[in-house]
Amino acid sequence: MSSLLHRSPSVGSLVNKIMEINPNLTVQEIIQIVRRSTSARGSGSGDEYSSLEVVNEDMAISIAQATVRNRSNSTN
Predict the structure, then answer these.
(1) Do the beta carbons of residue 55 and residue 9 sit within 8 Å?
(2) Is the pLDDT assigned to residue 29 strictly greater than 60?
(3) Fewest C-beta atoms under 10 Å: which of 6, 15, 18, 66?
(4) How far is C-alpha 27 from the chain's CA centre?
(5) Residue 45, SS3 per DSSP
(6) Beta-strand runs (E) in 1-76
(7) If phi over 0 gives left and psi between -120 and 50 gives alpha, with beta otherwise, what is residue 18?
């Protein structure tokens, strides 16, 4: 599990990358991208309030890039 955590990006650095790809995204759109690219990986410390979730950076970047293509297609 520790190797998985070392490969996971911090959410802040991922948000920066998403904003570099498409600076016109709203806060809600960025949150949606992060949520769509996050998956559960266990139960954390075992109580009902904690879980271990991992962000798939490649998926998030791909979704952000798609927003640029979708917006440029809708303006043509």
Answers:
(1) yes
(2) yes
(3) 6
(4) 12
(5) coil
(6) 38-40, 53-55
(7) alpha
